[in-house]
Amino acid sequence: MYHHIKQLMYTVRIGQPDPRFGNMLLEQFGGANGELAAAMQYSVQGLNCDDPERKDLLMDIGTEELSHLEVVGTLARMHLKPLKSDRNAAHADPLIAIAGGGGVNLYNSMGDPWTADYLKITGELDVDLRSNIAAEARAKIVYERLIDFTDDQGTIDTLQFLMTREITHMKAFTAALESMGKPAFSIGKIPPTPGLVDQYFNDSTGIGDRGEPDALGPWNQGGDWQIVTAPAFQEFESEKAGTRSPGADKAA
Ligand code: MN
Ligand code: MN
Hints:
252 residues, Ferritin, 2 domains, two-stranded parallel ribbon, globular, binds manganese (II) ion
């Protein structure tokens, strides 16, 4: 069950309202990588989780994200306040000015409605935890960009708090995944096909305009890796070498 405490998780103070920045903040309110998406993703994953220990983790972090939603919504409202009465400020977000009367709603900065399609919920705990680690990384980078676009110290302090918590969550989800003791590439029950799984398909040929060669790195070289010429190109090459080469008719 949920219980509301009449206090923000982080006390929000700002200097001058900046309506355009208030609009940008909506990315973290009703956007794809925002706080509602995080709260719903972890809470619904938690609801589906049969592992009581990791369920507790998912519910705890899901609940904290709801508290973040409250903080970022409060911050956005402060910046959007001039929209209520100032025609120029209303240009920063006509949807909020006209339909919302200056109040925030579950839209992103472009006015797209929040959608459950943002959520990654697979019912497979380790797969969900991987999604959550990536979700936290995205939330972190969005906060960082928001911080880069404001000079208001109170706003920066609030965003720094929220950004930091996303790294905390990333650490917790990573530790939870590692503690499951699953080998790194073991997903689900059916093993991948031996041999094929270690083949890196070189799906490009030639040198790019800026001299880009076929790159080698730990993603295709060393260990079990085997670099294989692209399947499509293999066919082309063998046709070229054979008697029925595609150019043969033309030459004759
Ligand atoms: Mn958050
Ligand atoms: Mn988080």
